[in-house]
Amino acid sequence: MNEREGVRGRLEVAAAAGVGSIVIVGLLGAIAAWVHGSSVSNGMAYAYYVVGCIALLVGGSAGAFAPPSGRARRRWTSDGAFAAPSILFGAVLIGLGVLLDVTNPF
To answer: What is the pLDDT of residues 29-88, one digit of tens each?
Structure first.
């Protein structure tokens, strides 16, 4: 297996994990809304909002947007390996929540 196939395989695994996570979060939100007797679309949207915000906070605290602490002056750098994917995943989840809120398909 060459390097290009290895990168493609890792991207496929990451995409499958992302889609699987989106489906699981949506299902948990739908089940919670159904149990409480509220709109399934709103339950899914709230679940996407909450998990998306958590992902943004985790990605931001990994170094991408974390301000320097203490007196030492240092440059803001993205040291965390999960910063960009976590921020992207959080933005996608929040976008899905907005889409569900606006369209209200269920």
So the answer is: 999 999 999 999 999 999 999 999 999 888 777 655 555 566 655 555 555 666 788 888
| Residue-wise burial string across 49-63, b where 16 or more C-beta atoms lie within 10 A, e elsewhere | bebbeebbebbbebe
Encoded amino acid at 19, one letter: V
Q: Which residues contact 74 (CB under 8 A, 6 or more apart)?
A: 68
Q: How many Å apart are CA 25 and CA 44, to the nearest integer?
A: 8
Q: Are 52 and 94 in contact (CB under 8 A)?
A: yes
Residue 6: both structure tokens together: 């290895």
What sign does the CA torsion over 53, 57, 59, 65 have? positive
First-to-last alpha carbon distance for the chain, in angstroms, is 45
